[in-house]
Write a structure and sequence with these properties.
- By secondary structure, this protein is an alpha/beta fold.
- 44% of the residues lie in helices and 15% in strands.
- The strands form 2 sheets. Strands 3-2-1-4-5-6-7 form a 7-stranded parallel beta sheet, with helices on both faces. A 6-stranded parallel beta sheet has the order 10-9-8-11-12-13, sandwiched between helices.
- The longest helix has 18 residues.
- It is globular, with a radius of gyration of 21 Å.
- 44% of the residues are buried.
- The mean pLDDT is 92.
Amino acid sequence: MVILMAIGTPDFTGASRMAWVIARGMKSAGHRVIVVTGRRPPDGHASVIDALRAEGIETIEESGFERRVPDRGLIDRLSKLVQREGVQRLISETQQDLKVLVFVAKKTGIRLVYHAQNRVLFSNNWLIQIIKRYLYKQLLKKHVFKVICISDYLRLQHVQEYRIPESMVITVNNGIDVSRFQPIDQTMRESIRSSFGVLTNQLMFLNVGRLTFQKGQDLLLRSLANANLNGKNYKLVLIGAKSVGLAEDAEYEEKLHRLADAPELKGKCIFAGWRDDIPSLLLSADAYLHSANFEGGVPLAVLEGMTAGLPTVSTDCAGMLGGFVPGLHGYVGKTGDVASFQSEIEKLLALSEQQRLSMGHEAAKLIRERFDSNVTTRRFVEAATESV
């Protein structure tokens, strides 16, 4: 089957990285995959485009995905590409490219699969929100063949809130390429920790994600500032950066730096920017903390932290990971609730080193048994390419 996949925002964060995994899975299953992306991020920012091309996947950069309304020129160009290359299935990976591919599907008659990876949210005033929600629902019903959600939380949102027929909506959880998490030697581990100024008597906490309200790093900083450390000392390393050109993210980043400069946190927070060695960083840390306000499912960053054998503290913003037992695999606090998240961090800080290692071991075991990307990607490929 010839498949055209769109990734409107080709950075290397969660949704685009998952799209890369899906594209690899499609190619491995014997399908021809053509990926059309938006323009790559500014210099210095990692892009999924490079990862796709390294896998030998046909990748075309296009302008127009970034526009607020569907770009007619882009729709025409993609429709011609579909017809020229004999494309048999369309796959949309983000809301940014969905608004384009629905019209390509309408124009060409090719079935469209929407990979729903994030909670559906609309900005603007209430009237504009109502209009956007209505259009979203109608476009899905009329032009989408199947909605593949990364969590039951998202599946229920589409069925209950947007009235999408249950027969159109299924859940295929995100998976992790566990082969990326090979043990590192003690010398490398100590070198990484030392590069962030982590002392031998300190714990290293890690957080990975864009510096934006969605990821909720302000709640993390407030919780740490108030936490009873139980005699522990730590450094928090924040991996990520603001989105380029978004004023609200620039303001949010400034807010985070102000919080980090408070007396309780002074010298404890390292803003490290984007890194391309996340597995090694996770394998060098002592715990992973993720305080998101909303996600489409349990974030890839949390799954990766668990795969690396770390105890995790996260929010319940997208429900619970299947099989996850609080206190055995990690801890879960209430979304947006500083006191709740602080309490879960304090539970983590009360653990001995052996207890933390044991929790991390159980977390890694859960991921390897139930969320290996080889298994989850195969399910996605089968669902997206079925002929019925």
